[in-house]
Specification:
The protein is α+β, with helices and mostly antiparallel strands. It has 4 helices and 11 strands, in the order H-E-E-E-E-E-H-E-E-E-E-E-H-E-H. The strands form 2 sheets. Strands 1, 2, 3, 4, 6, 7, 8, 9 and 10 form a 9-stranded mixed sheet that branches. It has a two-stranded antiparallel ribbon with strand order 5-11. A hairpin with a 3-residue loop joins strand 9 and strand 10.
Amino acid sequence: MSCDQPAPTTNTRVTTIFSFLLFAAAAVAPSGETFTCTPTRVWDGDGPIWCAEGPRIRLSGIAAREMDGSCRPGQPCPDVPAEQARDALVNLVGRPVGVSREGHILVEGPAMTCRSEGNAGGARTAAWCVSPRSGDLSCAMVRGGWALRWDRYWRNHRC
């Protein structure tokens, strides 16, 4: 920095750090990477699940209804209402502690172990996750009838 330029203000530094943290939090875990996810919020029955460590997880191998009740073209469409599937996933990962202003269910739950399958679109990581509360989340959602197995992505996964 030259003598002619003013030093960065605290606000500039804070904004730069905050921007970096948001970018890092939205990063997709590379395929094959194992990582920890402490759940903080859930959107619907197949995710995303927000992790305190940064990633947003879209559960691999399953499909649940969207929160507006619809199903995306080309994916399996379970009969279970979206709210019921979402609430089941919340209970599998932890316990509800509130609702964000965006409508996400805020959760507290133990750290899970996840294995990335790579990008699930946007800033989401497709992943197989195992919770100490309920085991393999994709398997539990299918077993409970809240989501359907999506063979295109299930591949050779075993419950």
